[in-house]
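Message: Study each token:
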Amino acid sequence: MMRPTIEAMAEGDVEAIAGLRLEAFFEGTGRTLEEDVAGLRGLIAGDGFEAAFVARERGRPIGSCLLVRDEISSPHDLTPWLAGLVVEEAYRGGGIGTALVKTVEAHAASAGIGMLYLYTWQARGFYEALGWTAVETFEQDGEPMLLMSRKL
């Protein structure tokens, strides 16, 4: 298997990544593909502080991770966030998620950011192995959630 490349998200990646994101994060939420496409387009057309990265296998987008100023409906007044890490199921466990996280961390560090935040529940062990620290657990929409941080 070729080593996937990680690059800035391009217009041609947006629909495929939005599809992956809908499946992973927005199942049953009423969020539409069009809404997610519009959100990603806004992100990549932004001021350059926020960023979207894509893992590609032979040119095809198979994963993504974002750096965003604000996390949707966040109860915490923190910024910025590592968000939206997703890897196509067939490619999980091969280090692509780790490479995407490290790419976002490097981008944030080069922008002078000293601390990053994220929300997760299932992936706590994955992020802890990458040096992230659990800050607090809380409930969002009746679901358990964990706030994590990483000093860059």
